[in-house]
Each structure stands twice: as C-alpha cells, then as structure tokens.
Amino acid sequence: MKLDRYDLKILEILANDGRITKSRLAEAINLSVSPCWERVRRLEKAGVIEGYSARINSRMVVHRTPVWVQIELKSHHAGDFQRFEAEVMATPEVTECVAVGGGVDYLIKVETQSIDAYQRLIDGWLMSEIGIQRYFTYIVTKTVKHVAPPMELALD
C-alpha cells in the first residue's frame, strides 16, 4: 500500500492520540472531515491501523518489575525455535519478545511482581528443558524513552 504525507500524518497523530475526534484530526492534517475519515477507514481496512488501545501505566495498577533477558538456545533447528517461542507465547509475564541476529537468539521483556518471581520463572524454563543454553538478565532501573517511531521514516 502506497502511503502519502496525509496518511503518514494521520498515523503519527493516531499513534499519539487514538481518541482524537474526527474534526480535530481533519483540522490537524488540513483536510475536511469526510476525506480524512475515508483515509482512516482505508488504513484500517488495509491493516495498517491494527486497532486502538490505551497505553496503561501498569505501575499505577499493579507493581511490576521489568526485566530484559537475552536468551541463547542450545540448538538452532526449526523445531527448537518453535518449541521455545511456543513457551514464550504461553507465558503471560513475557510482554515483549524479538528474535535477533548476532550473539544471542532472543531479547525478551519479562514483567513480574518481583525479582524472585522472575528467577522462579527462569528456573522453571531451565527445568522444562525448552532449549536454553544461557541467559543474561538486565534489571530495568528506569525507562528513558518509549514512543512510536516517526512516520516520516516511511518516506525514505
């Protein structure tokens, strides 16, 4: 799907304020309401906009300790990756997981009630033999930046 500057501006605005009114969105991109909203619906239908949600400050609701973990698997066969990823998908404490190239296989964000709870999770994974060779734990001391990428990068 080819996106123009209006589409990219719509995406940027909605990424920061999914509750913006139709008229304020149209005003912000210098279009009338109907053409602006047609673009939004087109972006939704094409799957560019996957949905709308609220960004919840989980620290206000429940105490969570965020931990980033580097994981290296023992073996690199397709079944090993599938088995590990299935376990990650079934673990609610894992809030983010990406497969990466380089010296490790995965970077995982785990959010538990305590460091002890995190260690029990890791110990369980190690005992279940899902193929972890080694892991490195990084305790998050503060979040410096967490935003959506700028939409103008799509123009490159």
Notes on the protein architecture:
The structure is a single chain. The chain starts with a helix and ends in a 17-residue tail after the last strand. Helix 2 packs across helix 3 (33-45). It has two domains: 5-54, Winged helix-like DNA-binding domain superfamily/Winged helix DNA-binding domain (Arc Repressor Mutant, subunit A, Orthogonal Bundle); 58-139, Lrp/AsnC effector binding domain/regulation of amino acid metabolism (RAM) domain (Alpha-Beta Plaits), CATH 3.30.70.920. The protein has helices at 5-16, 22-29, 33-45, 58-61, 78-89, 115-127; strands at residues 65-73, 94-99, 106-112, 132-139. It is of the alpha+beta class and 156 residues long. The chain is elongated and about 60 Å long. The mean pLDDT is 90. It has a four-stranded antiparallel beta sheet. The chain is built from six helices and four strands, in the order ααααβαββαβ. The longest helix is centred in the N-terminal third of the chain and has 13 residues, at 33-45.
Please supply descriptive tags for the structure shown above.
four-stranded antiparallel sheet; Alpha-Beta Plaits; single chain; alpha+beta
